[in-house]
């Protein structure tokens, strides 16, 4: 994570100082919350929208992943507490630096460097070896109201049902940007249900540059922030989503998606048509998670992909 300037008026800095961490400093903020460096390799995460009651599932998820040897670190919960209804967890600080962060300045070049694509392949191959667990199958995708796998033994069937639910959440807004939306949804769901079942592995679901930490040589040393679309399912879904979201808004974004989709199909043995199908499914299940106005980049990106 990129260390930011500490604000002396930050109430959480004062809170951690009162808990015996006088050198607490804010590191970064994301969808799930804000992270503070405390001391001796320990960080604290102040969660947004996560209640203490459902955090036990997250702790089991992290333990399930950590139980399987990986060539990089993953989150480990040491302790958790509640402060005025807000969940605070204490974790091991993961090493390395973000492969790329939003404040890096220049967008990625048209041709991604070999070190970057090699790092992605390393992470995708490794995560595909972590078997799916019952804890992973109980997780809820961001924006939904039930565990993805509830009532479904097959990942692609569960995803098809989610596509239909999510498309109905704000159908009119999406239909205004995607002609023939009903046909797009019906074809996507039918195509998902026609896929053969595959053994489950863990799916991170949000492998974007800030969530992949590397060392000075560019080798992955940590993967952060499981939870946005984390579940147990087809590793081809992980590869498809990663190819699509690695660069969503840069001047060469479409080229990067196509380049990575071809690379992952060739190197990981996934059919390209299945990867593109999963990318459409991802657009349909996340289009409204950040906003639906003309200025929301994610909404526009999803609509463009579906068109």
Automatic annotation (TrEMBL):
Domain of life according to the entry: Bacteria
Cited PROSITE patterns: PROTEIN_KINASE_DOM (PS50011)
InterPro entries in UniProt: Aminoglycoside_PTrfase (IPR002575), Kinase-like_dom_sf (IPR011009), Prot_kinase_dom (IPR000719)
Domain (Protein kinase) ranges: 21-307
Protein's recorded name: Phosphotransferase family protein
């Amino acid at each position: 994570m990129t260390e930011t300037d500490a604000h002396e008026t930050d109430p959480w800095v004062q809170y951690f100082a009162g808990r015996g961490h006088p050198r607490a400093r804010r590191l970064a903020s994301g969808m799930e919350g804000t992270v503070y460096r405390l001391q001796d390799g320990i960080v604290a995460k102040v969660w947004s929208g996560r209640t203490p009651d459902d955090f036990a599932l997250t702790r089991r998820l992290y333990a399930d992943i950590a139980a399987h040897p990986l060539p990089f670190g993953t989150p480990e919960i040491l302790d958790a507490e509640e402060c005025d209804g807000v969940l605070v967890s204490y974790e091991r600080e993961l090493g390395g630096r973000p492969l790329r962060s939003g404040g890096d300045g220049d967008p990625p070049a048209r041709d991604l460097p070999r070190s970057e694509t090699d790092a992605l392949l390393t992470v995708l191959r490794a995560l595909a070896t972590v078997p799916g667990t019952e804890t992973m199958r109980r997780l809820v995708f961001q924006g939904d109201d039930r565990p993805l796998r509830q009532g479904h033994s097959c990942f692609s069937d569960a995803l098809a049902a989610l596509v239909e639910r999510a498309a109905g959440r704000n159908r009119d807004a999406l239909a205004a940007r995607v002609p023939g939306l009903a046909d797009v949804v019906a074809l996507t769901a039918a195509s998902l249900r026609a896929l053969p079942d595959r053994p489950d592995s863990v799916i991170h679901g949000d492998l974007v540059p800030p969530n992949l930490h590397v060392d000075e040589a560019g080798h992955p040393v940590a993967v952060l922030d499981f939870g946005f679309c984390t579940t147990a399912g087809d590793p081809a879904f992980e590869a498809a989503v990663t190819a699509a979201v690695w660069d969503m808004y840069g001047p060469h974004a479409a080229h990067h998606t196509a380049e990575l989709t071809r690379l992952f199909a060739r190197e990981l043995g996934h059919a390209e048509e299945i990867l593109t199908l999963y990318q459409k499914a991802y657009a349909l299940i996340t289009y409204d998670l950040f906003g639906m106005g003309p200025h929301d980049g994610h909404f526009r990106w999803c609509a463009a992909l579906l068109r």
